[in-house]
């Protein structure tokens, strides 16, 4: 490996908060609390080596903090275009014939809620957690009695957003995520 390639790799790891370099001290791995876990690559790498149940619960905690509020915002501020994307995702969930179709539609549903909330700072969170969320959705669909067991809960979120009822949307998303948590913990 050339020095140029090594320097670039070290620069990348430094920018992601994984290592630090100091003159006369050298290069060291930083403590985990200093890592930039809100970097797509770092989150993906971490999800592959973290204890699966612990990681799933941490991701679920993050979702429980963000998604109910985002659903309420989506109900209050969605546009025709963003609601159309949410409606398409919901229709795809209702029409899913297998786990793979369900997971793709379920992922699109949750990403569409974040987009429909019209908050530019929340939207990137969907892109950030997309890969790890997809894995969690797949696991939950396989743990359920049938892959689309949570369709009714998703429909409640969809209808509350459609009706522009922010309170009902928050409550429905909270109920949906409690079903997800129960499957993770099972």
TrEMBL record:
The keyword Protease does not apply. The keyword Transcription regulation applies. InterPro entries: GntR_C, TF_FadR/GntR_C, Tscrpt_reg_HTH_GntR, WH-like_DNA-bd_sf, WH_DNA-bd_sf. Residues 1-32 form the HTH gntR-type domain. GO terms for molecular function: DNA binding. Coiled coil: none annotated. SUPFAM superfamilies: GntR ligand-binding domain-like, Winged helix' DNA-binding domain. PANTHER family: GNTR FAMILY REGULATORY PROTEIN, TRANSCRIPTIONAL REGULATOR, GNTR FAMILY. It comes from Paraburkholderia caledonica. Keywords: DNA-binding, Transcription, Transcription regulation. It comes from the Bacteria. This is DNA-binding FadR family transcriptional regulator. SMART domains: FCD.
């Amino acid at each position: 490996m050339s020095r140029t390639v090594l320097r670039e790799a070290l620069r990348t790891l430094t920018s992601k908060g994984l290592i630090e370099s100091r003159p006369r001290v050298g290069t060291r791995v930083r403590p985990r609390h200093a890592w930039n876990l809100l970097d797509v690559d770092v989150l993906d790498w971490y999800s592959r080596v973290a204890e699966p149940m612990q990681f799933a619960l941490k991701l679920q905690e993050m979702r429980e903090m963000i998604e109910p509020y985002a659903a309420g915002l989506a109900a209050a501020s969605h546009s025709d275009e963003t609601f159309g994307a949410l409606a398409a995702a919901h229709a795809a969930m209702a029409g899913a014939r297998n786990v793979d179709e369900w997971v793709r539609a379920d992922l699109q549903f949750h990403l569409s809620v974040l987009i429909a909330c019209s908050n530019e700072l929340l939207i990137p969170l969907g892109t950030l957690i997309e890969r790890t969320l997809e894995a969690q959705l797949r696991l939950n669909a396989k743990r359920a009695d049938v892959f689309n067991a949570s369709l009714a809960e998703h429909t409640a979120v969809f209808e509350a957003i459609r009706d522009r009822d922010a309170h009902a949307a928050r409550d429905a998303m909270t109920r949906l995520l409690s079903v997800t948590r129960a499957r993770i913990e099972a």
